[in-house]
Structure formats: C-alpha cells, structure tokens
Write a structure and sequence with these properties.
Blueprint (H helix, E strand, L loop, with lengths): L1 H20 L4 H75 L14
Length: about 110
C-alpha cells in the first residue's frame, strides 16, 4: 500500500513539474537539483566527521578525568585505611589502661611512629 502511494506521489510530482516548468527547463532544473543534493551530502559528511572528531576528543577527556577520579578515590581509601589502622592500634594500646587502670603496655619496638 505504501509503495503504491509513494509511486503515485512521485508520478504526480513529475507531471506537475512538466506542467509548471515545461519540457525545455526540466533538464536544467534536474542538474541544479542534483548539484544541491551533492552539496547537501558533502555538508552532511563534513558535519558528521566534525561531530565524530569532537565526540572522540570529549571521550578522551572523559576517560582521563575518570582515571584521575579513580586514582584520587584509591588514594583517599588508602589514606583512610591507614588512619583506621592507626586508630585501631591506638585503641588496642589504650584498652588496658582504660579497663584496668594500670600501667600502659610497653611500646611496640617493631613499628615506627611518625
């Protein structure tokens, strides 16, 4: 159904063009129309190429920022882990003093503080 309608519309446009333009001017109009289509295709190709280039550049920037964010997040997690370990160690050392009221345990000579 759609194909027959499309065929009829194309036929109708050709008939109207012959009536309005006349058979002498149709070849010149067809050439101008072909040039216009060629120009529009070139424009569309150039625009597509430019958009792809821009998109590739944006994708590279996004990946760089994503890597920086991942590295930053890892650094924060490492720092947080070391702080947590230090707090745990301090609590273990302080627990006997808090619970028993006794003397602090001797310092662990194997670990460096600083």
């Amino acid at each position: 159904m759609l194909e027959s309608l499309l065929g009829f519309l194309i036929f109708l446009v050709i008939v109207i063009a012959v009536i309005v333009l006349g058979p002498e001017r149709i070849p010149g109009v067809a050439i101008q129309l072909a040039k216009g289509v060629k120009f529009m295709r070139g424009f569309a190709n150039d625009t597509t190429s430019t958009l792809r280039t821009e998109l590739n550049d944006l994708t590279k920037e996004y990946e760089e920022l994503r890597k920086e964010l991942t590295d930053f997040r890892k650094g924060v997690m490492d720092d947080l882990s070391s702080v947590t370990d230090e707090v745990d160690r301090t609590l273990k050392e302080a627990r006997p003093m808090l619970e028993g009221g006794g003397e602090p345990p001797p310092p662990d000579r194997g670990t460096k503080r600083g």
